[in-house]
Amino acid sequence: MPTNKLHLAIIPDGNRRWAKKHALNPWEGHRKATENLQEILDYSRKNPEISVLTVWGFSTENWRRDPKMIDNLMKMLEEYLLNQREYLHRYHIRVFHSGRTDHFSPSLGTLLEEIVEETKTYTDFSLNLALDYGGKDEILRAIHRMNDSSAATEESLRALLDNPELPDIDCIIRTAGEMRTSNFFLWQSTYAEWIFAKKYFPDFTVSDFKEAIEEFRKRTRRFGK
Predict the structure, then answer these.
(1) Is 13 in the active site?
(2) Could you state, in order of their start, the residue ranges of all structural domains in the chain?
(3) Domain 6-218 CATH assignment equals 3.40.1180.10
(4) What is the DSSP code (8-state) at residue 99?
């Protein structure tokens, strides 16, 4: 058993395409995706290899989508967080949020901030929710927090990112056959391994997740050496 714990990340693509394939409204694909995510989260928190699971739920670019769909997604997200609250406390899961809250409704933004605050003492396992997140936006916000950007170092800039205490990402799994980085954690994914799965995320199972981890473990990471 490897001794180093993993920070795994998922870009759960293909939800709308899955819904279209099954003649459903687009947001129903996202609803099915949350069910899959729950199973993967259950597996991850029990796996001693994994310390952090990052999930990209909504990007800074996603605001360009159809307003009706965005509205349904925001309601679904708030419902998900409310339903997960007891589960997170029961299993001592620490929640991080990467991204902005100023574009969310007051109720959603407050709920997210409350859950982050309530779980901050847990150390068993961490769930990092990337919501209204973009890699460029995170770096720009970090620069804006600097008092003197001319004196910036790699360490000083990293300290101003959304969650500097989280380790860099080891492996990113992207579903639905998409093969691009899409502004996803540009700083923290510098040496991440990428695995591209063909399945739409609503069809992506725990078995597929395990296979991705096995594939990652076969790779040799050189970190530029």
Answers:
(1) yes
(2) 6-218
(3) yes
(4) S
